[in-house]
Amino acid sequence: MLTDFVEGRTKLLNIFHFGFETWEEIGIAALLMNSSAIVQFQSLDKGTYLPYVRALKKIEKEEGFHYHHALDLTHQVMTEGTNVQRARVQQAFETWFPRLIGYFGPPDSAVYESNPLFKWGIKVDSNDTIRQRWMTKIVPVVKSLGVYVDDSVAKYDEGTKSWSYSGVDWAEIKRLINDGGPMYKRWVESITRSLESNKKYRRAALRSPYVDAA
To answer: Is-contact 38 30, C-beta < 8 A?
Structure first.
C-alpha cells in the first residue's frame, strides 16, 4: 500500500494534504477528523465483506480514543487558554470544517447506487447520508466547547430534518487529490525514506516461515 502511494497509484484523501499551523489547531482539527472517521466506519461496518467489517470494528475503538483526546485538548484550550488561543481554535474550525465536509465525497448523484460498492453491499450508505449523520453528531459537540458555528457554515432545517452547508469547492478537492496539496510532497519523501531504511527488515520478515504459516 505504501509503495503504491509513493509510486502514484494510490491517492490521499483531501484532508491529508494539509498540516497544522499552530498547536491550538491540532485539537479541533483532530476532533473533526476523528469524528468523521468514526461515523464513516460505523456505516461501513454494516457491509457484507466480513474481514473488512471486523477490522473496522477494531479501528473504531482506536478512533474513539483519539476522539476523546482531541475533545479534552480542545476543551482545555477553550476553558484555560488565552483569547488568542481561543481565536486560533475558532479559526482552525472555520478552516477544517469545510475540508471535512468534503472528506465524505461529492454530493449524491441520481445513479450512485449503481456503484459496484453498493451493489456488492460493501458500502451501505450514500455520501450525503453519512455527511448528514456526522454533522448531527459533531456540530452540537463543537458548540458545547464554545466554538461559534455560523449558519452560513452549517445550519439545521427543522422542516427538512437536514443540514445545509457551504464553503466546499468540489472542483478544488478533486484537483487536490489528483495533483497534491501542501503536505503531499513531504509525505512522499518521508514514506520513501522510511521504506528504504526498513527494506532489509521487510525482506527478512517476508522470508520468515511464520509469514506463510499465518
So the answer is: no
